[in-house]
Amino acid sequence: MSGSQIIVLVTPVFLALMALEWAIGRRRGRPALRLADAVSSVSLGMLSQTSAVFTVLLRVGLYTLAYEHLALWRSEAFWTTWYGWLIALVFYDFCYYWLHRMGHEVAVLWAAHAVHHQSQDYNLSTALRQTSSGAVLGWVFYLPMALAGVPPLVFVVVGLVDLLYQFWVHTEQVGRLGWFDRWFCSPSNHRVHHAVNDSYLDKNYGGILIVWDRLFGTFKDEDPREKCVYGTRGLLNSWDPLWANAQVYAGLLHDSWHARRWADKLRVWLKAPGWRPADVAQRFPKPAFNLHDMPLFDPPLSAPLRWFAGVQFVLLLAGVAAFLWQADGAPLATNAVWFATLLACQWALGAAMQGRIGMGLALMIEAGALATATSALGFTAWHLLFKPLTMAIAIVYAANHAYPMSATGRFGLHRSCWLLLSALLGSLAGDVFLMLSEHLFIPGLVSFLLAHLCYIALFKQGVGWFGHRGALGGTLALGIGMYAFLWHGGLPAALRVPVAVYVVVIALMAAQAWGRHAALRERSSLAVALGACCFMLSDSLLATNRFVQPLPLSQLWVLATYYAAQVLIVSGMVTALTRGAAHQADARTQPLTPHAA
To answer: Looking at residue 140, what DSSP letter applies?
Structure first.
């Protein structure tokens, strides 16, 4: 049984203990967790486990390589006795202490470990909040075990034991434990470790034993007079799992890039977290840390959104469990496709809880990811469900926003809403035609052609025709080049005219989208322009695969870029139309000025 499968089996125990902690906290009048924070933490744990499928070579492979070629002494008989296992566990915990300590003292290692500390809550869900990049450098700290001849199997097992032990210490519901606190990592000791108070900062690194901290001068007892304040000194303020893993790296990259001295560009990564070159700190100042100015990140969750988040979380948990259970025996490409699908769903859930996108758009992203995966991996029956469902969700989402806008009676908004819905309906028809039979290629092409014409008319609303001449020339040049490539690659004579018309139309759509962005200069207009480019890329991949030569995993690339295009355009246009309706409503409610009167 693999480590991933063991994690799957113990997950129900984790969830049961989290429920117990919540019930105890509620009874004591101290709720132990917030829904969004807990979902975010567990989601990061899911991402850590799913990404670990691809870093096993670093975590175990390099250890095994070192063991086979560098071990100074080998005796599996010794290491598999009860005392051998115990020594290996203590050895692992010693190595973990130094990895953990360096993770707080070296910036590049902190960039990986910071994920675990970002939550402003401290509960059992925080224990599951783990990094996805720690394996990149973390394996180095366990090489002494390989040199000492600890077999890889023993190394993996004691590592799992050390990790599982640390789950229960992430709680505020367990107080001081007397003699136990003096020898072992306990809830009290680990609360200190997670605190950002000056007196608690960078203390108590032990995984199972707190003895290491007492030996090496990093121990700090919890003071009942000083309440622990949790989080990081650079607050994350996001439920985005990707940004949670990238936040500190992005800051280091920024400072390294802007440092004038080459030595400072390197020191940024190797010095203590928070160190910045003087010139960078002067040009890009940051406010000093203030323990009393750490507002709790807690975007409001409506009742429907809470239900949505709860259901989505359960479904994601089931999907991750299924993925981990079979990952060790599945091909790399299959694992990569399902990993990307789960990641898209996790991102959509986090964005919805944060209020960055609506629930409808989150469902569209998730359905599109599943439609792409089921097509790429040959799950035909499921693909027949998710492909039309994606655009049906998009239509409902757009219509839900379009109806109140069209009810304002303003012709511009009314027409824009109908053009958006018509484009989505055309796309849905094209999806159905292309999905049902290759003989329906022409009806599918015509449906998408009409959809793109609607998009061109939609992007024209409120701006001029093709406002960016460079974009017009560039997209037409790309279209001509693509058409020449298809012609040379064997485009059938019967399709040369309709494909030529289609290429011109989609190039004009992209040009109009960029012209619109040149006029408006908004984030929503940029999203629409990028979506139009994704459309060009998707159609180019589709045509290349169909008329020139088959592409590996063609459906993955074609559908991924297609749904990226639709999501970007729908989100950008709905945002723009909603803003336009709000401005018109404000204009109608404002009293006339004397000049206007």
So the answer is: G
